[in-house]
């Protein structure tokens, strides 16, 4: 029997995307300005190609410009740096995203470092992580931002709640911890060396799993009524669908968690759609800041 409320990330993302499209229309009409997002992809990894295609499609659907740069796997560091520098200078490009992971000949940190922080819509540049940590107005990484928007929508005021994030990556766990701190949560970050993960989990009013291990978080790890955000995306065999077939699951055992949690995000259809819409929102934010426009004033 399902008890938990299923948080519909797909529907919420569609609502937010409509808001982005409305803001883009105002920017065009009142400011003669069209936000532009450049996405750079190296190589032919099928999953990355799907992500990049999806990002480009949604960018265009919201009325923005999309600039796709598909380079061969063998691209050198110098060639990629030259492209990033030209995008930094391009006045039609307000946001730059370099799809990770990059091939081994490329130093990922050096590429992220080369992106103009004002155009860093992924929010990975050290300037943006520093601004997030010190309460400044930088660009916030898309997946943590999407998690926050869902949590705010679900819970409203989060002051005093205990939040546990499982995973300490620079792109999810750490920035999300900062965002939850800003909401006055008491935040714990767990990782592969955490002692009793089940006990830590059971104490959490808000549980975020960002690990990359299929269905690791069991139902009896969850505090009754807790809000569970499942960031993980794992592909597992699905023999019930036919030979060689697979399906996506999160880091949380969904069926078990539904019996205990107050609300939970599904996989797919939870955090994933929110990540892309936050990228679009960050592009509008970047565009407004570069042009000296008050973003809040766009929606009246
Ligand atoms: P990383 O591999 O960078 O980090 C994983 C984290 O999980 C690490 O901090 C690691 O600990 C921790 N961990 C690993 N094993 C355990 C364990 N047994 N117990 C506790 N902690 C453990 O992953 P990402 O942060 O990049 O991504 C996490 C998941 O989220 C992946 O499934 C990824 O596909 C998904 N993802 C989804 C997105 C979306 O849009 N929905 C966007 C980004 C990611 P340690 O640091 O000690 O090694």
What labels would you give this structure?
about 300 residues; Rossmann fold; 11 strands; globular; binds NADPH dihydro-nicotinamide-adenine-dinucleotide phosphate
Main sheet characteristics: 6 strands, parallel
- Going by CATH, the homologous superfamily of one domain would be NAD(P)-binding Rossmann-like Domain
Number of helix segments?
10
Distance between the termini: 44 Å
* Fold-level CATH name of one domain: Rossmann fold
Biggest β-sheet: strands ordered side by side in the sheet: 1-11-8-7-5-6
Helix % is 40-55%
- Residues in β-strands, percent: 15-25%
Which hetero compounds are present in the coordinates?
NADPH dihydro-nicotinamide-adenine-dinucleotide phosphate
Question: Overview of this structure, please?
Answer:
The protein has helices spanning 9-31, 46-61, 77-89, 108-114, 126-134, 142-155, 173-182, 197-202, 254-258, 271-291, and strands at 5-6, 36-42, 65-71, 95-98, 162-166, 186-190, 206-209, 227-230, 234-237, 246-249, 263-264. By secondary structure, it is of the alpha/beta class. It has a domain at 142-273: NAD(P)-binding Rossmann-like Domain (Rossmann fold). Strand 2 (36-42), helix 2 (46-61) and strand 3 form a beta-alpha-beta unit. The longest helix has 23 residues, at 9-31. It is globular, with a radius of gyration of 20 Å. The site of NADPH dihydro-nicotinamide-adenine-dinucleotide phosphate has 25 residues, from helix 10.
């Amino acid at each position: 029997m399902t008890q938990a409320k299923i948080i519909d990330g797909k529907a919420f993302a569609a609502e937010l995307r409509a808001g982005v499209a409305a803001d883009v229309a105002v920017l065009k009409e009142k400011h003669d300005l069209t936000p532009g997002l450049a996405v750079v992809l190296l190589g032919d990894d099928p999953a990355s190609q799907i992500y990049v295609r999806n990002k480009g499609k949604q960018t265009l659907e919201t009325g923005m410009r999309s600039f796709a740069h598909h380079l061969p796997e063998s691209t050198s560091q110098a060639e990629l740096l030259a492209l990033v520098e030209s995008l930094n200078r391009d006045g039609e490009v307000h946001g730059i995203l370099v799809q990770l992971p990059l091939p081994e000949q490329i130093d990922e940190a050096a590429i992220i470092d080369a992106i103009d922080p004002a155009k860093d819509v992924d929010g990975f540049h050290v300037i943006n992580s520093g601004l997030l940590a010190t309460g400044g107005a930088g660009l916030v990484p898309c997946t943590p931002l999407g998690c926050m928007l869902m949590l705010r929508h679900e819970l409203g005021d989060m002051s005093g709640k205990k939040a546990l994030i499982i995973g300490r990556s620079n792109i999810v766990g750490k920035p999300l911890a900062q965002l939850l701190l800003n909401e006055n949560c008491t935040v714990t970050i767990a990782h592969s060396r955490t002692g009793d993960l089940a006990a830590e989990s059971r104490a959490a009013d808000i549980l975020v799993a960002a690990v990359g291990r299929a269905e690791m978080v069991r139902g009896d790890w969850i505090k009754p009524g807790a809000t569970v955000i499942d960031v993980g995306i794992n592909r597992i065999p699905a023999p019930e669908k036919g030979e060689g077939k697979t399906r996506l699951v999160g880091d949380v055992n969904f069926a078990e968690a539904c019996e205990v949690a107050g609300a939970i995000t599904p996989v797919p259809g939870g955090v994933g759609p929110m990540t892309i819409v936050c990228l679009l929102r960050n592009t509008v934010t970047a565009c407004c800041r570069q042009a000296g426009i008050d973003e809040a004033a766009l929606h009246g």
